[in-house]
């Protein structure tokens, strides 16, 4: 296997509050290869977005990366000085946020925002950057880009604005795109178009994509691999067909069971009992144990480490060959 | 856009008409001015003659009509105490007040925005906290006290600056300016600080709060994710968004600066309209008071109008909603 574009090892992110230090991300490891789309799913608060922000170095105090390594094409990018990480952002890693309505500065023409970003990262002249901006807008599917480039954000619809945001994210040909719930704020009919666009761009440019979402449909349609997160940990990671069709981790099984299918309209959807623990009250052992139907004594004391199961990797004691011994 | 401007203009005219009625009503309810002008031994015939020469014996409606038509031509009658046309008295005093108000506002805006931006970006530094403390003083200390303290320190104790007046004045046509002479500059420093301090602290606090708010928005986070320089984010994206509400407040405050200049002008014996007004109040010189009222409200209404229009220039979102709404 060639060197992955993004390699995250044992990442820990902490938020220091007056009362306690909360660990939002606890030992997360994953790789994304060139041209690969990794989906990251999980409930709200599972640490999906924080992982994305940690990669691009945008965790604001009181949050901090407390342990682990993040490598981009072989170079460490965690704990870089501000000026160096700034050169990585936008140039080597493009980021797309959830809400395109608020991601663009309302007082600047969209063209000026794109040109500004291009000129920050390249040595193109104003007019060359403008031509490039028009090409980018055309590439992300904005009709009549030479006219729309002088429009203000409020003159665009939500879907069109997300296209502009995507154009901004890819304008310096990044190696990695982090898309943090790029379709959540959009109309259902527009969602598919945006997902298709992100997928096409990733394929055309060989860009690695980290797609954070809680929409399993999007994951199944778009991603090559998927990571299921729970309470700041990766519960299961593997190729998307395997994880969707044959989930191993009890939590992943619960998630997949909660997807409505067109065929089985009469069945009640399976629901996972309880809710995800708050960061301040994560139980010892496996964080999922209070909600897990298969939990046994060891789950309540010892934290499960990832275990390889074929192409998948799952953090669950059920798959440990010597599962009863340590308890 | 044109319809919007026209509608605002009509509203402004409505306000001015209402103020005109109030200004005229002062003539009816502020006592008999003739008694103020004459001594005890003036005969009834002489009083009647003065009354007649000032037009005070005509019916109310006639007086109002005459007042209204004259006001449209900037004729506000004759001052009771100076026996001079009010409009020329005001015109003579206007440059002093405007120069003071403009200097004070510029000072307030420049210092206020700089201090506000600094204390928003470097929130936890000692200097930022000092600015916060100063702003508290500026907001809570009354203007006249600040003026008197400044006079005591810089004029009486140190002797650096004059304690009253405008210094040497140069005539440019009908406009008299103190900004072309050294003594004029020296004279305007303390009044401008006194008058501008409140607005400065107001703007500083507003800029700080707005900037902190803007720095938390998604588009600033996205700008950081795009790898823009901190400088471009803070002084381009954030500052521009911060200044939208600041323009409104600073603009509207310019009206109050002119109105508040009454106190500052009294403390520093600044020969402006405010001082004229205070003297007019002491002498029940109603034509001056009424004209001053009209003038200050005209300034307020004009500023409101300009700010409304400026707002749409700065914020492209308003431009389209405005043209859609009208």
TrEMBL record, chain B:
Record GO cellular component, one term: plasma membrane
SUPFAM superfamilies to which the protein is assigned, alphabetical: MetI-like (SSF161098)
Subcellular location: Cell membrane
Topology in membrane: Multi-pass membrane protein
PANTHER family in the record: ABC TRANSPORTER PERMEASE PROTEIN, DIPEPTIDE TRANSPORT SYSTEM PERMEASE PROTEIN DPPB-RELATED
Biological source species: Bradyrhizobium macuxiense
Domain ABC transmembrane type-1 intervals: 94-311
GO BP of this protein: transmembrane transport
Classification via InterPro entries: BPD_transp_1_N (IPR045621), MetI-like (IPR000515), MetI-like_sf (IPR035906)
Annotated protein name in UniProt: Peptide/nickel transport system permease protein
Record field: transmembrane: 12-30, 98-121, 133-154, 174-198, 243-268, 288-314
Family membership: Belongs to the binding-protein-dependent transport system permease family.
Record keywords: Cell membrane, Membrane, Transmembrane, Transmembrane helix, Transport
């Amino acid at each position: 296997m060639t060197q992955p574009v993004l390699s995250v090892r044992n990442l820990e992110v902490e938020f220091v509050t007056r009362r306690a230090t909360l660990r939002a991300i606890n030992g997360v490891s994953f790789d994304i290869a060139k041209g690969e789309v990794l989906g990251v799913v999980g409930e709200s608060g599972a640490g999906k977005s924080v992982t994305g922000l940690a990669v691009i170095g945008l965790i604001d105090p009181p949050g901090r990366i407390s342990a682990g390594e993040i490598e981009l094409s072989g170079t460490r990018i965690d704990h870089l000085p501000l000026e160096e990480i700034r050169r990585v952002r936008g140039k080597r890693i493009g980021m797309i946020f959830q809400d395109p309505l608020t991601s663009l500065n309302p007082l600047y023409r969209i063209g000026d925002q794109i040109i500004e970003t291009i000129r920050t990262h390249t040595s193109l002249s104003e007019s060359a950057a403008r031509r490039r901006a028009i090409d980018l807008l055309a590439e992300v599917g904005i009709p009549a880009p030479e006219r729309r480039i002088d429009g203000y954000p409020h003159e665009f619809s939500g879907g069109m604005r997300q296209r502009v945001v995507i154009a901004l994210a890819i304008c310096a040909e990044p190696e990695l795109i982090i898309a943090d719930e790029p379709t959540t704020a959009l109309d259902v009919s527009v969602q598919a178009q945006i997902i298709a666009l992100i997928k096409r761009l990733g394929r055309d440019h060989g860009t690695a994509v980290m797609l954070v979402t809680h929409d399993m449909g999007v994951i199944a349609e778009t991603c090559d691999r998927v990571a299921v997160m729970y309470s700041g940990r990766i519960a299961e990671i593997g190729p998307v067909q395997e994880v969707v069709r044959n989930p191993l981790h009890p939590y992943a099984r619960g998630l997949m069971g909660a997807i409505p299918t067109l065929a089985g309209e009469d069945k009640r959807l399976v629901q996972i009992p309880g809710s995800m623990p708050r960061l301040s009250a994560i139980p010892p052992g496996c964080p999922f144990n209070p909600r897990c139907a298969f939990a046994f004594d060891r789950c309540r004391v010892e934290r499960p480490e990832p275990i390889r199961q074929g192409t998948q990797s799952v953090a669950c004691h059920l798959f440990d060959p010597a599962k009863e011994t340590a308890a | 856009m044109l319809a919007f401007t026209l509608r605002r203009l009509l509203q402004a005219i409505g306000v001015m008409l209402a103020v005109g009625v109030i200004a005229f009503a002062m003539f009816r309810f502020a006592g008999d001015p003739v008694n103020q002008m004459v001594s005890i031994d003036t005969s009834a015939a002489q009083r009647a003659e003065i009354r007649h020469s000032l037009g005070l014996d005509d019916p109310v409606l006639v007086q109002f009509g005459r007042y209204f038509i004259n006001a449209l031509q900037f004729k506000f009658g004759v001052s009771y105490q100076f026996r001079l046309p009010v409009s020329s008295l005001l015109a003579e005093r206007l440059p002093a007040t405007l120069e003071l108000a403009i200097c004070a506002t510029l000072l307030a805006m420049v210092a206020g925005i700089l201090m506000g931006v600094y204390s928003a970006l470097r929130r936890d530094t000692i200097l930022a906290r000092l600015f916060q403390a100063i702003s508290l003083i500026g907001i809570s200390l009354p203007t006249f006290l600040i003026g008197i303290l400044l006079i005591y320190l810089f004029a009486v104790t140190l002797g650096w600056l004059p304690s009253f007046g405008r210094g040497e004045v140069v005539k440019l046509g009908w406009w008299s300016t103190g900004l072309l002479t050294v003594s004029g500059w020296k004279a305007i420093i303390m009044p401008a600080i006194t008058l501008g301090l409140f607005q400065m602290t107001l703007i500083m606090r507003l800029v700080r709060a707005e900037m902190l708010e803007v720095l938390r928005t998604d588009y600033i986070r996205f700008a950081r994710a795009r790898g823009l320089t901190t400088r471009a984010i803070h002084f381009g994206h954030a500052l521009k968004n911060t200044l939208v509400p600041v323009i409104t407040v600073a603009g509207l405050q310019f009206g109050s600066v002119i109105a508040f200049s009454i106190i500052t002008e009294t403390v520093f014996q600044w020969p402006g309209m405010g001082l004229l007004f205070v003297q007019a109040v002491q002498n029940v010189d109603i034509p001056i008071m009424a004209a001053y009222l009209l003038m200050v409200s005209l300034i307020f209404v004009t500023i409101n109008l300009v700010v409304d229009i400026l707002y749409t220039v700065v914020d492209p979102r308003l431009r389209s909603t405005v043209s859609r709404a009208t």
